[in-house]
């Protein structure tokens, strides 16, 4: 049985996401990072290496923000300011991401409480290894989203 795609978008619709879950939604990780950025944005994220995430953004709609160690691109909507996802591009050109379920109102997570996650004590190497092991393969395409 195939798990249906989950579709969401930022507040204004300039960025659309399609998550193809690799397992039932109830089994996907659901986390609340405890860093200042995520707390201020009320972020609740999911990622899964067996899933796939498509991010479609209208041309010029994505603001790539980097903070702290500057190792990840935080994807914000340039128009409405919503925190959509965080992503990294690997040396081979592939992309991994963690999706802010709360920011794009992704269905299927209603009634769940995200698990607090604190990554403050990780080294850069540990952080990259965790992302490679847990984050979702993703694409980021600039095209007019069809919401």
Rg, Å, rounded: 14 Å
Helicity level, as a percent range? 10-25%
| Low-pLDDT windows of residues | none
**Computed structural class:** mainly beta
Order of helices and strands: EEEHEEEEEEHEHE
Tell me which CATH architecture applies here.
Beta Complex
- Number of domain units: 1
Average the pLDDT over all residues and give the rounded result.
Answer: 92
Question: What order do the helices and strands come in, and which of them pair?
Answer:
Layout: E1 6-9, E2 15-20, E3 31-33, H1 36-41, E4 45-46, E5 52-57, E6 62-65, E7 73-77, E8 83-89, E9 95-100, H2 101-104, E10 115-117, H3 124-134, E11 136-142
Parallel strand pairs: 3-10, 5-11
Antiparallel strand pairs: 1-2, 2-5, 4-9, 6-7, 7-8, 8-9, 9-11
Give a concise summary:
It holds the Pfam family GFA. GO terms for molecular function: carbon-sulfur lyase activity; metal ion binding. This protein has 147 residues and is mainly β.
What attributes characterize this protein structure?
147 residues; mainly beta; Metal Binding Protein, Guanine Nucleotide Exchange Factor, Chain A; 3 helices; 14% helix; Mss4-like_sf; Aldehyde-activating protein; zinc; CENP-V/GFA; carbon-sulfur lyase activity
């Amino acid at each position: 049985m195939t798990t249906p795609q989950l579709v969401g978008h930022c507040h204004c619709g300039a960025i659309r996401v399609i998550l193809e879950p690799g397992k039932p939604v109830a089994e996907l990780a659901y986390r609340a990072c405890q860093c200042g950025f995520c707390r201020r944005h009320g972020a609740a994220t999911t990622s899964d290496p067996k899933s796939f995430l498509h991010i479609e953004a209208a041309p010029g709609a994505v603001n790539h923000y980097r903070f702290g160690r500057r190792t990840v691109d935080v994807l914000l909507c340039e128009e409405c300011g919503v925190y959509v996802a965080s992503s990294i591009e690997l040396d081979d050109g592939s992309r991994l991401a963690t999706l802010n379920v709360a920011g794009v109102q992704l269905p299927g997570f209603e009634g769940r409480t995200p698990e607090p996650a604190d990554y403050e004590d990780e080294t850069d190497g540990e952080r990259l290894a965790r992302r490679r092991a847990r984050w979702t393969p993703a694409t980021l395409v600039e095209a007019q989203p069809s919401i």
